[in-house]
Structure formats: structure tokens, C-alpha cells
């Protein structure tokens, strides 16, 4: 039996060689550790002769972005591989194929998606993804509906809640998204130029009330099995294909947290476009595309979720009470808008930022984008409980960045 240790490239290559039927015997394998995320090792293994390749992702027992002082359970690797496999059955074609999971090494071997681009980088480059709204709305409607009390056996769901208990990764979210940005914390990474705006966040007690309400939902509302970290860095895309990766933050939580993650990261890109597209007309056009995408994702998600509910709903009372469906979807929209706001703010003043904004080399433009994003985030949080339509999120975004 192999005991857990962090692999090097040579060991990863040997393990790849041992995967039955994948690489031809004696293949000239090349391996590179390419992990640029916050938590894991990622090995890319290729065979130049056959053209075959795969990815091996290994969890480390600590948060790579901080170091060994921040221990993290390796069980997240099991959670990630089980969630990926589940997503593959519920949203076929929209996640990488899992070839193998090794529990001793906390290692998942999966499909190589190098022909795709991380969507965050694609959007920074101004790439449009015409099928994204269709794909991601299907992914979210299917994975959220079929793991909720509306779409699966309610006793089985309780066992699944237990199986996907993910305390260490939830704690990261609870701290980094729902606490640190609103206090003085060693975890924060506040750009000095906007310290005044960060101080305003710390002193805004009305805002704290709304964040506490959203935090409570994240802590207690086991509504469906979430991806848990559905930002544009967790999505590989081409104009024709979308693949959702990295569900290590999966747990049973409020559905709006996943939908809000997608919207927050499209809005962060919107804010950063002040720099990335210098031509005014082209930038206006791309920003319109981003907002249209948000509207399209919400409308398609709402429609697909209701279709699943009407066809496959298992809860008698919920099915027999049409007004409940409208109540449920409106509450989900309001949660989505609130979580969108929280996820924007954490990427500006919290620990982990986003390239869409942080990589802007011009100080003034970067500061303008950061301040605009904070205005959007706070307005969304402030207004989420009264929101009636997705148009309100769009209006708030446009107004803040004029
Ligand atoms: C310590 S991990 C920082 C962030 O990276 C992940 O992508 C999650 O968003 C997490 O909050
Ligand atoms: Mg990740």
C-alpha cells in the first residue's frame, strides 16, 4: 500500500504508466506540475507518440497559497472525485471524465482539457462563449435540482448530506467570504489605494446585517449539493464547449451560492474590462455581452429548473402548490443576488483576488475597477432581499461602472 506523500513529477509519471490500458507500454511520457491554484498539485502527463494525455490532481494536507500553517483535510480529494462523477451523470459532457481515484494518495486522475482555456483568461482576452449560458444553466439546473429535496429521495439526501460534510473547505468560505472582508483580518489583502473603501466596509453595520443573513444561509441551508467554488477559474471553455472543474468545495448548501459565483465573476470581468479593452465601442459591446450572458444564464436556469420540477418533482405538496414554485424561484434569485455581492467583495479586499482586476498594470484604472466592483457588491448585498428580477443586478452593475 502507498502511504500518502506529496508526489514529484517522476512518481506521478510512474503512476500514470500503471493506469491500465491508458498509455501504450513504454510510451515516452513527459510530466509537468502545472498547479497554479490555491490548494493542490496538478500534474499534466503527455505521451508525444500517441498524443494521449491526462491530468492528475493531488490534494496537499495544507493550503498551498498560505503554507503548512493552514492545515486542510485530504478528504476533499474524495469529495471532489465523488462530486465530479456525480456531475458527470447529471450533466453529461459538462465535466471532465474521471479515470481513477486513489484514496491513499488523495489523487484524482482525469481527462486532460488542455484544448480548452480557463474561462477567466478567455474573458480577459475578450473571447465570447456563445454556448456558455446554455451549458452552465443546464449544469446548475441539473446538479442543483437532482440533489435537492425537490428532485431526489429525501431520506437518501440526508445520507448524502453526511457524505459531503466538508468542514475545512466550508470554513475557508465562511471566513474568507462571510467574515474577513468586514473586519480587520490577517487573511485580508486590501490594496492600499482603497483602504478608505475597506474601512467603509468594516463600519457598515447595515451591510453586516445582510451579510450575516447570507452567512447564516451558507452555514445552515442544506438545500442542494453545490459545486461550492463555481468561479470562472473553475471553468474550462471554448466557444463550443464548457467543462466545470474543481468541485473540492462541494457540500450541501444554498443553491444561490453557485449561481452567484458565476455572476460575480462575470461582473468582476466587466469591471476589469476598463483596462483590457481600450477601444470604447468594443468595450461597451463586450460589457453588453457579459450582462446579456448573466440575464440569459438566469432565464435559462429558471426555465430549466422549473421544467425539471414539473416533470420529475418528488415532493407532493411542493408539486401541488404552483405558488410555492414561484416563491421558491424568487427566493433563489434573491439569494443569488446577495451571494453575488459577497463573492465580488471578497475578491477585492479578501485573501484571494482575481486576475481580471489584479493584473491590470495601470494603477488608476485598477483602482477604478476595484472601487466600482465594491460599489456593485455592496449594492447587491444591500438590495438582495427585495429584488424582484435579474434586471436589478444588471442595472446596479451598469450604474456603478458608468
Ligand atoms: C485558501 S483558498 C482561497 C480561495 O481559493 C479557492 O478557489 C476558493 O475560492 C477559496 O476561497
Ligand atoms: Mg479551485
Give the tags.
single chain; 402 residues; alpha+beta; Phosphorylase Kinase, domain 1; Aminoglycoside 3'-phosphotransferase, Chain: A, domain 2; 2 domains; 5-stranded antiparallel sheet; 3-stranded antiparallel sheet; 15 helices; 53% helix; globular; binds 5-S-methyl-5-thio-alpha-D-ribofuranose; binds magnesium ion; S-methyl-5-thioribose kinase activity; methionine biosynthesis; Methylthioribose kinase; EC 2.7.1.100
Report on the structure:
A hairpin with a 2-residue loop joins strand 10 (235-238) and strand 11 (241-244). The protein has 2 domains: 9-111, Phosphorylase Kinase, domain 1; 117-400, Alpha-Beta Complex (Aminoglycoside 3'-phosphotransferase, Chain: A, domain 2). A 5-stranded antiparallel beta sheet has the order 1-2-3-7-6, sandwiched between helices. Strands 8-10-11 form a 3-stranded antiparallel beta sheet. A two-stranded antiparallel sheet has the order 4-5. By secondary structure, the protein is α+β, with helices and mostly antiparallel strands. The chain has 15 helices and 12 strands. The N and C termini lie far apart (60 Å). It binds 5-S-methyl-5-thio-alpha-D-ribofuranose (SR1) and magnesium ion. The site of 5-S-methyl-5-thio-alpha-D-ribofuranose has 10 residues, from helix 6. 5-S-methyl-5-thio-alpha-D-ribofuranose binds at residues 38-39, 63, 65, 172-173, 176, 229, 351-352.
